[in-house]
Amino acid sequence: MDEWTQDILGRLSEACEPSQVLAQISGAARQLGFEHCAYGLRTLVPFTRPKTLMFSTYDERWSRRYINAGYLQVDPTVVHGVHSGTPVVWSNEVFRDAPQMWDEARSFGLRVGWAQSVFEPDARVGMLTLARSGEPLTPAEMRAKDPLLQWLVITAHRAFCRLLGGSPLAGVEPLTARQVEVLRWTGDGKTSDEIACILCISKPTVDFHLRNAMAKLGASTKSSAAAFASRLGLLN
Q1: Does the model's pTM come out above 0.70?
Q2: Res 47: pLDDT
């Protein structure tokens, strides 16, 4: 495993664009018994317009169909992936609510698949999918390959993030400890008067810290500032 992983890491370190990362991850996927791979990076803010970047070795006709049919919004593996880091194995049960998508995917030879997500504290989540046309994934195969699959999804995510950038935290001025504190209480539904009482400071002081936090986050209300900061992991 060490020689295999070091070889992949060496090649990825030389990658200068996402297509080169995809080529290296695709090669690793083939060594693990998968014909195709796909990687998607979703930024979960703004809440109403999350941005998703996708790269894959799938047939271009399927990739176009996937986008044009709006399958990104209904893909059950994506729905799972933005909420859980638990691996998901493709099955009829997984795709029971998206039967047309499942039928079309299989028509392009995408019949067996495995996917897992990696979460960043700055509201980004990346998901690696490996797929093949036959040979169902058995429990024995999953047990044998799990360490390599776990390593590959993290490695792919880091390599893509290095080149894609786009962290929502870029350009955001750090919050002070007091700003974090008042935003936490705001997120819990406390008013400025209540926060002042809890922290033993004046209401104008609470409002001062809230206004500054809102300005740093580009938020128009204290509630949206608390929600945005929470999603970015700034209140943890």
Answers
A1: yes
A2: 80
